[in-house]
Design a protein that fits this description.
single chain, 315 residues, alpha+beta, Nucleoside Triphosphate Pyrophosphohydrolase, seven-stranded mixed beta sheet, six-stranded mixed beta sheet, 23% helix, binds zinc ion
Length: 315
Amino acid sequence: MAPMSDLPFLHCFSGNRLDRADNLREDRGFIDRHRHNPASLILPFAEDRPGIRINGRAREGAAIDWLPLADPRIAERFREPVIFLGLDGEGRARFAAPLDPDRQDMGGDGRTKWIDLRSLAVQALLDAADLSLLAQARSLICWHREHRFCAGCGEKTGPSPAGTKRVCPRCSREHFPRVDPVIIMMVRHGNDFLLGRQARFAPGVYSALAGFVEPGESLGEAARREILEETGVEISAFRYHSSQPWPFPSTLMIGGFGEASTTALRIDYSELEDARWFSLDELKHMLAGTHPEGLLAPSEISIARQLMKSVAAGA
Ligand SMILES: [Zn+2]
């Protein structure tokens, strides 16, 4: 089998090492056994923010605040859904769940902080496997909170034993977590690259162009439509590079390269504040922070920056 091209390009929020045990996790007996196993661990969330223990100086001692789920004094602090994330390398089950808002004081030593996942990633406080597991947990917790009613009959739904889907008690319809595909690409014409900026970006930042894939579209069709709509540039080909889970709340960024067949810009200012062609040399300076106009590449945690680095390295 050909190697999957994602694997050499390990993006932030990928690299999860848990075995999701998807053939076992809808068995209530399997989940109940693990919920009562003293070795099983649970990750607390306060709204969208995971509990992180800070020991000493933050960069030396940040770790996920895993708690023993079988301890009844711990278990009673959580609300449903208790979500099964998977089994670790030692066969221990890992769960995540939101804490009861009145029970977010986790022991009183003051070392548990509720830290936004984006901030944890930008500060590189945790390793790739932990950030990825937090992304899985955050996306699922947000999905449960936002999808509490059956889209078929309007009844209130409940989580399955593992919390990986919701089931309607009236019409039995199953509802699965959604993942929203977004295409993001470096558009190339010879040695020039098309980048854009949105008004919400940090000053000076230009990034690869992106857009949601719509129903009934292939990736190539979505790429062609988005670039034409936003910039007026036509692309003749799209080549997949790699993908990245983006847990805000649950997007899959599908990264690649587009070959432009035209270069004239007709920018849609309702979508973009600006779009420009940049030379390869400019791209390298943006990555290095030495562009003469002070222009910058996006954050290290973004797939857009990794696509730019890949181009700068001669991909
Ligand atoms: Zn229903």
